[in-house]
Write a structure and sequence with these properties.
Elements lengths: L1 E3 L2 H8 L5 E6 L5 H13 L2 E6 L19 H8 L5 E3 L3 H4 L18 H4 L3 H16 L3 E5 L3 H13 L5 E5 L19 H22 L5 H14 L3 E9 L12 E10 L2 E10 L1
Parallel strand pairs: 1-4, 2-3, 2-5, 3-4, 5-6
Antiparallel strand pairs: 7-8, 8-9
């Protein structure tokens, strides 16, 4: 495995590769990230993992400066799985002030985007940069951030990028909690409570499968159930799997998505539902 920091070195290393499978991350890797890399290993002859904490996707009151930087530990976890780890400095990714951005679709201003203005613009911009640098044939993203995945799929389609985007199922702890770098911020009591996010999403999914048609009422009931347990709820939303648009009556492929704060920690999760 080769650790690369410089853009020129990355391009030289990958110049002759023809089957690159790419996994972009912000580091502080957990088992969910490693599962994405294992998938990449099965699909490409050269596996590239990027580790870059992207300042463009953090708001002024978010945790950019506190976000854990654990490069040595991350590289140890990737040994034997990745061929290249690309860990650029901010100056490598943004050699001059970024004044050109990817303007994401309207869905970027809904759901998480309504609570994190500019987040998805910053995310899409850095992912396009990373795609340009790594030139992968395949890129793998977790479904846990369903909105991110939907926006990346649209970006690849609309910009005619020759990259197959693969969505990987959410990795979960034994009690159902979606694995996340932010789980480490939870107190022991909050960690126990956190499992109720997945439980309530599962209840919503089961109600939809049982024929529930009043989506607004179902969303509200789930939000109230979380709020009654002390969560600060950003949203619980039932959307189409196709682009996260609001579903039509006959929609058969849905996703139940939620974001809520437990103490100071914001958690997201979702469940796909096929009727």
């Amino acid at each position: 495995m080769r650790l690369i920091h410089a853009v020129a070195e990355l391009r030289a290393r990958l110049a002759s590769e023809t089957a690159i499978a790419f996994v972009p991350t912000m580091g502080n890797l957990h088992e969910g990230h490693i599962e994405l890399v294992r998938m990449a290993r099965q699909r490409g002859t050269c596996v590239v993992v990027s580790i870059f904490v992207n300042p463009l996707q953090f708001g002024p009151n978010e945790d950019f400066d506190k976000y854990p930087r654990t490069l040595d530990a991350d590289c140890a976890k990737l040994a034997g799985l990745a061929d290249v780890v690309f860990a650029p400095a901010v100056g490598d990714m943004y050699p001059e002030q970024q004044t050109l951005y990817v303007e994401p679709p309207p869905i970027a201003n809904e759901l998480c985007g309504a609570f994190r203005p500019g987040h998805f613009r910053g995310m899409a911009t850095v992912v396009l940069k990373l795609f340009n640098l790594a030139q992968p044939q395949i890129a793998i993203f977790g479904k846990k951030d369903y909105q991110q995945l939907a926006i990346i799929r649209q970006m690849v389609t609309q910009f005619n990028l020759p990259i197959a985007i693969i969505g990987a199922e959410t990795s979960r702890a034994a009690d159902g909690l979606a694995l996340s770098s932010r789980n480490q911020y939870l107190s022991p009591e909050e960690r126990t409570e956190a499992t109720n996010l997945y439980r309530i999403l599962t209840e919503v999914a089961n109600e939809l499968k049982a024929g529930e048609k009043d989506l607004a009422r179902t969303e509200l009931k789930a939000s109230q159930a979380l709020a009654n347990r002390g969560w600060q709820v950003d949203y619980v939303a039932i959307r189409s799997q196709n682009g996260l648009i609001k579903p039509v009556v006959e929609e058969r492929k849905l996703v139940v998505a939620a974001a809520a704060r437990l103490g100071k920690t914001r958690l997201i999760d979702n469940l796909e539902v096929c009727l």
